């Protein structure tokens, strides 16, 4: 199995400047690899650092030390310390992030929101529209909503638009932050099917799933984040 992402000795601290400079050691010495077609699930209690790890992998947080290397443009690319434009290229071509929340952009239609990751990669508009329609149908977003901006959609509709967008293209690495949270049974199953298809297509998936049944369907392996117990230092 080809390794798609390699994480080595990752440390992340938060310094609370407004609170006597308390330092939270949230990620300590995290190391793991994920291969093509594999889904690794982050396990750990609330506050163990799961979301922090996801945000660090996506380049939102700079770790104190360690390495995050992803297979990008046929070579292992070091994300830690990379320039913002390189991180943007990784996000466009290599690493997708699906959370339960849609970042709504005023006046951009639902169909355009979903198509955007494919257009950014140079897909023809008709091919992108076809895939977007198929995903929106599978996720039970009524066709009458497709030409409207999702700002006024219900929470569940926005979540499903975000999932359609996330699964629009095959990402070499996919970060899934509670993608099935608060979905009904039918749509939850659609998301589990989409995750299965991404694995089949060779994506390396890293996920957070509070839903135990979903976790058990998708996980090939677990990473125990409880060993991470936050320590505090003044
Ligand atoms: N931006 C931040 N600044 C300071 N501390 C933070 C920040 N983000 C997270 N933390 C702290 O890091 C720890 C881990 O938080 P994180 O959100 O990663 O946990 P989690 O495992 O995802 O929890 P949950 O399952 O509740 O979502 C918590 O103690 C939290 O207070």
TrEMBL record:
Signal sequence bounds: none
Gene3D superfamilies: P-loop containing nucleotide triphosphate hydrolases (3.40.50.300)
Source organism (scientific name): Advenella faeciporci
ATP-binding found in the keyword field: yes
Keywords assigned by UniProt, alphabetized: ATP-binding, Cell membrane, Membrane, Nucleotide-binding
Family: Belongs to the ABC transporter superfamily.
Pfam (any one): ABC_tran
UniProt keyword Iron present: no
Domain ABC transporter as annotated: residue spans: 5-234
UniProt GO molecular function: ATP binding; ATP hydrolysis activity
Name assigned to this protein: ABC transporter ATP-binding protein
């Amino acid at each position: 199995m080809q390794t798609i992402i390699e994480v080595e000795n990752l440390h992340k601290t938060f310094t609370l400047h407004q609170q006597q400079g308390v330092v939270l050691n949230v990620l300590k010495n995290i190391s793991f690899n994920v291969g093509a077609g594999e889904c690794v699930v982050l396990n750990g209690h609330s506050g163990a650092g799961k979301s922090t790890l996801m945000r660090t992998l996506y380049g939102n947080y700079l770790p104190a030390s360690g390495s995050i290397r992803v297979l990008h443009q046929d070579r292992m690319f070091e994300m830690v310390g990379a320039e913002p434009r390189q991180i943007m290229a990784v996000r466009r071509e290599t690493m997708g992030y699906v959370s339960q929340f849609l970042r709504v952009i005023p006046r951009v239609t639902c169909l355009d929101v979903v198509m955007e990751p494919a257009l950014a990669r140079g897909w023809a508009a008709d091919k992108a529209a076809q895939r977007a329609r198929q995903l929106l149908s599978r996720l039970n977003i009524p066709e009458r909503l497709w030409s409207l901006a999702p700002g006024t959609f219900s929470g569940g509709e926005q979540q499903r638009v975000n999932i359609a967008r996330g699964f629009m293209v095959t990402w070499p690495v996919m970060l899934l932050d509670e993608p099935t949270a608060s979905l009904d049974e039918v749509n939850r199953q659609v998301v589990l099917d989409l995750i299965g298809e991404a694995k089949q297509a060779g994506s390396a998936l890293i996920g957070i799933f509070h839903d135990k049944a979903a976790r058990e369907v998708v996980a090939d392996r677990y990473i125990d984040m409880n060993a991470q117990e936050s320590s505090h230092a003044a």
